[in-house]
Amino acid sequence: MLGKIISIEENVVTIKLEVEVDKFQSLSNLLVSMQDVNNNYIGEITNVKKDTADINLLGEIINDKFVFGVIRKPSFGSVIKLVSKEKVKSMISVGDYIENKHLYIGKSTIYDGVDVCVDINDFFSEHFAIFGSTGSGKSSSVSRIIQNLFSKERHVPYKSSIFMFDAYGEYHSAFTKLNEKVPEISFKAYTTNPNATDGDFLRIPIWLLSVDDIALLLGATKHSQLPIIEKALKLVTIFGREEEEVLKIKNDIIARAILDILSSGRESSQIRDQIFSVLSYYNTSELNLSTIVEQPGYSRELNKCFNLDASGKIREIELIMKFFQNYLTDDYELKLPDGSFKYTLRDLTDAFDFALISEGILKSDKIFDETNILKVRLHSLVNSDESLYFDYPEHITKRDYIRKLLTAPNGRKAQIINFNINYIDDRLAKTITKIYSKMLFDYAKELDVRGSLPFHIILEEAHRYVQNDNDVFLLGYNIFERITKEGRKYGVLMGFISQRPSELSETAISQCSNFLIFKMLHPKDVHYIKEMLPNITNEIIKRLRILQPGNCVAFGSAFKIPVLIKLDMPDPAPSSSSCDLINTWFIEKR
Fold it and tell me: 74 Cβ partners below 8 Å, 6+ apart?
């Protein structure tokens, strides 16, 4: 018997020790059983003094199985004993290991020789988060866990699909040679470096993007900007067709804009100047300032028809209005693109220019300013190196594009698809991760058999992308939050890896069920973890500051109790080591 209970306060039981503490290497963090007549409680020793010890209550043994959580408290007459190593295994691990059902995570740091394994469904069928300061071992541990999953002797997770968004290009080295050990496994790499030779260049077909995607790409912030984006996408379905059809639509849009200006009630000189400004920028081969206007007996260029009379009025106003009315047509229908035809960023730019005047933006200076900034950003994108990421060489449907992502260079199913987004700025990286996540989520929702092809989306440096940003206000949702709330039933799961959890979306983190937390130092992050995460105790919080690299506190639905784990080093390791200043700085004197 270890001792007798002398006090019970909240979740902490204090016992008077009846053993010689010096005979134990350490009592701290060991599990104890507190059994009375009716119940058997399990706790963890947290503080040890010379003759007393504090025990944090964890759960109960019910029907010979450990159940986390305590409703009642042990009685003062409970028998206090250390839990045997054999029983500990069943509490901090899965018991009898089954290869196609369980996954080895690492070793217990408290009990020598005890492996910590989890049920694969309990861990991977839920969203998870991995937190830790720089150098705490996050990247190595993620690599090791995935390597363990793909290194089983008799079972291969062939239908798994893990999409890694690699912020620093670290994971390529950890996974690229997996198929040398397991031939059935294929790794596929995409890179944002146009000069790289170790992967396919990342290209997204622009015609697969929705109104919401374009809004994110252009940095829209106001609801007034969405109708212009929608109109531009509708127009691009026309502009992608034969030139004669396009010409007729462009003429119609220009004519309607000019007629709106003519009936605006402004001074004639302002009307003339605005029409000249519009036709100088928006024009066609048939309708421009040099177009010939035919009149009975003579003809003249359009720009000559705007002369003002002595009263300051446009002399030929009726003639001009009739001229533009001849270009009106209702012989077309605008629909949002469905991905069935190819168009380019330049086609979208052309459509966007005409969408601005089509929606009557010229009537409001405020709305014009709000929407014109999107046009400027789109023009800048077209003329920048970033346009390469949306320059897809041939037409492809969304379904076939996803299938191509999942197909390795050898033609087999790819299990790990790594996106190296190290060569683009955070703004574009955030947009690309959202576009892909939404695309995968939509694909999964449309499968005939729900959950038949699970997708795991793992975001390195997740705090850069999964933020409390403007999406909910602008679009009504944030794709990462939507996936964490709805994705499990479709088999779309998120994994967040971050050194700054306090900067992450609270909604997304609140939906995570499993956590691996490595050493954390920043007070704001430690406090955030304490306030946000379920089932976390003050004892766990205290440990976070003193964990060694590669050690973590693991808890959640896959773990019966919070457990300290030492993860094995990955083989091969990711490219995540710090800069070697000794070999970089120093040279020998001559």
Answer: 5, 8, 13, 34, 36, 39, 41, 57
Q: List Cα–Cα distances, 7 to 11, 51, 267, 514, in angstroms.
A: 11, 14, 89, 33
Distance from C-alpha of 407 to C-alpha of 297, rounded to nearest angstrom: 69
Residue 61, SS3 per DSSP: strand
pLDDT in tens, 363-420: 666 777 788 899 999 999 999 999 999 999 999 999 999 999 999 999 999 999 999 9
CA distance 175 to 192: 18
CA nearest to 76, candidates 35, 110, 48, 116: 35
Residue in this structure with the two tokens 């041939």, named with its chain if needed: 394
DSSP state for residue 151 in the 8-state scheme: -
**Residue 231, number of CB atoms within 10 A of its CB:** 22
Structure tokens at 4: 């007798």
Buried b (16+ CB within 10 A) or exposed e, 439-451: bbbebbeeeeeee
> Residue 361 — pLDDT band, cuts 50, 70, 90?
low
- Which pTM does this prediction carry? 0.90
Q: How far is 327 from 428, CA to CA, in rounded Å?
A: 41
Q: 135-150: b or e for each residue (b if 16 or more CB lie within 10 Å)?
A: ebbbbbbbbbbbbbbb
DSSP 8-state assignment for residue 291: P
The answer to whether residues 306 and 317 touch, using CB atoms and an 8 Å cutoff, is no
- Residue 553 has phi, psi (to 5 degrees) of -100, 125
Write out pLDDT tens, residues 424-440.
999 999 999 999 999 99
Q: Output the furthest CA–CA distance in the chain (Å, rounded).
A: 120
CB contact set of 280 (below 8 Å; sequence gap of 6+): 289
**At residue 580, what are phi and psi to the nearest 5 degrees?**
-90, 90
Q: Rounded CA gap, 587 and 582, in Å?
A: 9
Report d(CA 261, CA 314) in Å as an integer.
13
From the centroid of its chain, how far is CA 585? 38
Residue 577, CA distances (Å) to 173, 176, 423, 534, 574 in order: 12, 18, 19, 32, 8
Residue 342 to residues 236, 309, 332, 348, 393: CA-CA distances in angstroms?
Answer: 10, 50, 20, 11, 10
What single-letter DSSP state applies at residue 464?
A: G
